[in-house]
Amino acid sequence: MGHAVLVDPADFYSGIVVDAYARLKSNSFDADRYRDFVVAHGEPALELGCGDGQPLLDLCAEGLEVEGVDSSADMLERCRENALRRGIQVRLHHQRVEDLHLERRYESIYFAGPTFTLLPDDRTARRALKAIWRHLVDDGRALIPLWVPSPTPEEELGVCRSDDDGLGVEVRYTPLSEKTDPVSRTRVTSSRYERVTATDHQVAEREWIIHWQTPSSFRRACAESGLDVVELIDDGTGSAVTDDSTEFTATVCRGPER
Prior knowledge:
This protein is of the alpha/beta class. Helices cover about 25% and strands about 35% of the residues.
């Protein structure tokens, strides 16, 4: 058996967690949404939190000039493997979003899904927004999906989800406990990941931190980071956000340097 490992939030997706994510993830990213954004606002484009390559590789396969960045070396290695398997050329960068320092600026920058909520606190979120400001061209745009999570249902805590690949490798995920702090807008889920074969049983226990933004807190963070909010749209209604919106998408641009 393994033992609990405390990791920096930026390194959460490492080791056996990468295997579990690839095989147990319940979400998928609609490539059309991001393709339309890049086509509308221009290339080169940059995908933040590209992970194992969805939707990045789909856009590259269509000939769009999109680069990817992720804080997880293991995720980037999986992305390279996926790209090689599909015969796709892709340019990847191993950096944290909040410390982003690339050699060029981009017409379009986007997060794949609500990856922005993985930034663990407001200070880190503001640093990430400032990094976006630095890497956008003067008339560029950035797309940032946002999400206000609900608590994990009590009946799901302690319940294992698993997948067996039919080749003798099983991965498991179990949410163990959870704490939510509405003041800091943070949900912390203690989770166990396992990789089981006939001869080995690996375990990693991680704290999955979700730090969410409300429409008002996001507008404030952008203002403090030099970004102007072009629009803030409720994903469910397609209209402007309200205080009750839980899934919404921001489009931002460079404002005057502050």
